[in-house]
Automatic annotation (TrEMBL):
Active-site residues, record numbering mapped to chain: 245
Keyword Chaperone among UniProt keywords: no
SUPFAM superfamilies, per database record: S-adenosyl-L-methionine-dependent methyltransferases (SSF53335), Winged helix' DNA-binding domain (SSF46785)
Domain O-methyltransferase dimerisation: 20-76
Species annotation: Micromonospora inyonensis
Protein name: O-methyltransferase
């Protein structure tokens, strides 16, 4: 269908402008502006004073977000308040996505995408001076925000898969790289006879301990410091939720192999990841996520089911089936064969 060039130019400029809106959202999230609007409209000058921001600069950013229905800025009184959409950026909202916008991530390094395209390597070291994981490990405050962002995304993508799966009446579920315990807590709720072990970096574990205690799961759960490439404890079901897309193929095989090494014959593995189509176009969100992986982590990528099956086979797992979750999530099931050692 023919379209006038001016219409195409308008679409291109919409894309051009949307990038700045994303950065504006990240800025107000990091300044915790939505939290300060929890009780209703406030003068921009008061907000600026509380967060040590320039009033004029903050006002102009809020006006930009007004045009995208995040806040309402009343010019005559210079007061601002949250829309329903903006409420989701409050940290205390039950469906908060504050950390997703406040965390260190793609907003900090995407300006170096051209370097990644030229070299095939992530942009992170050129911006942060070191790898992404190493940078976070030295900065506990930023690690905490990143962990919360992962919990927000697990709530939206992984949790809806839990009731779609059958869980054993008893045994041990081991969540490898389980973060703050969002997924494992839901699994333990779904299987009252199950016990759980969450494995992750030491600095992440206190948040998981708190979550299990708050949910009344302390007596059925434990946390252990863990390196993804190290052997895992014995278990009946293993979970890897949105872990493998952060790593290159050889490292994925090492992670899967480490899990296989600790698994008993007949143990099951459940991998929570998006699956790219084997042919045809990618969904826009899939293409976006794939580029994010490329920019942030060496060799990281989204994969097709065929690619995951090949990696599972290399690591000694037998593919079973896939279960479709919400858009952007599938569960890949695999098992250790009865003759595995």
């Amino acid at each position: 269908m023919f379209r006038e060039p001016i219409a195409e130019i308008a679409e291109l400029f919409h894309v051009y402008q949307s990038g700045l809106v994303f950065h504006a959202l990240c800025a107000v999230a990091r300044l915790e502006i939505p939290d300060r609007l929890a009780d209703g409209p406030r003068p921009v000058s008061d907000l600026a004073a509380e967060v040590a921001a320039d009033p004029d600069a903050l006002r102009r950013v809020l006006r930009l977000l007004d045009g995208h229905e995040i806040v309402v800025h009343h010019r005559e009184t210079d007061r601002v308040w949250l829309t329903d959409r903006g409420e989701l950026l409050r940290r205390d909202h039950p469906m908060s996505v504050w950390a997703t916008f406040a965390t260190l991530g793609i907003s900090d390094v995407a300006h170096r995408l051209v370097d990644t395209v030229r070299t095939g390597r992530p942009a992170v070291p050129g911006v942060l001076g070191t790898g992404f994981w190493e940078y976070l490990a030295d900065r506990p405050d930023q690690q905490a925000v990143f962990s919360q962002a992962m919990a927000e995304q697990a709530r939206l993508l992984s949790l809806p898969c839990v009731p779609l799966l059958d869980w054993p009446d008893g045994g041990t579920v081991v969540d490898v790289g389980g973060g703050s315990g969002v997924l494992l807590a839901a699994v333990l709720d779904a299987g009252p006879g199950l016990k759980g072990i969450l494995l992750d970096q030491p600095q992440v574990l206190p948040r998981a301990v708190d979550r299990f205690r708050e949910r009344g799961l302390a007596d059925r759960s434990e946390t252990r410091p863990h390196d993804l490439f190290a052997p895992v404890p014995a278990g009946d079901v293993y979970l890897l939720s949105r872990v493998l897309h952060d790593w290159d193929d050889d490292e994925v095989v090492r992670i899967l192999g480490a899990v296989a090494g600790g698994a008993s014959p007949g143990a099951r593995l459940r991998i929570f990841e998006d699956l790219l189509p084997s042919s045809g176009p990618l969904a826009a969100t899939q293409a976006w996520s794939d580029v994010v992986m490329m920019v942030l982590y060496p060799g990281a990528r989204e994969r097709t089911l065929g690619q995951y099956r090949a990696l599972l086979e290399r690591a000694g797992w037998v593919f079973g089936r896939t279960v479709a979750g919400p858009p952007g999530m599938h569960v890949i099931e695999a098992s250790r064969s009865a003759g595995a050692r």
